[in-house]
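Chapter summary example.
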Amino acid sequence: MRMFSGVPEVFLYRDFVDFRKSINGLSLIVEQQMVLSPLTGSVFVFCNKGRDKLKVLYWDKTGFALWYKRLEKDKFKWPKKLNATSLNLTEQQLHWLFDGFDVLGHQAVYYESVAL
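The structure predicted for these 116 residues follows.
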């Protein structure tokens, strides 16, 4: 089953979240810290500090939905260093995250010269 296909946008919240937060608490994070509207149909992804749980919040035109995933083994590959509060992901990157891949991939490397 392919979840979250055809969504307008996917946003990954950079910081870890207290997973006692539910729809109301996560919606406030989207509005106040990410400075986005949670009512657009976009998908918002949150991770716990242990990186073994994800919560995905979205508005489906009739109300909020909250999707929860817990890994039994291993951890999600969560981006370590971001300058922004959130990261905009493609739908493919979201599925890569669910599958355990690093969604950012390799970081760009810049050099001034090839000679040492």
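To summarize the output: The mean pLDDT is 84.
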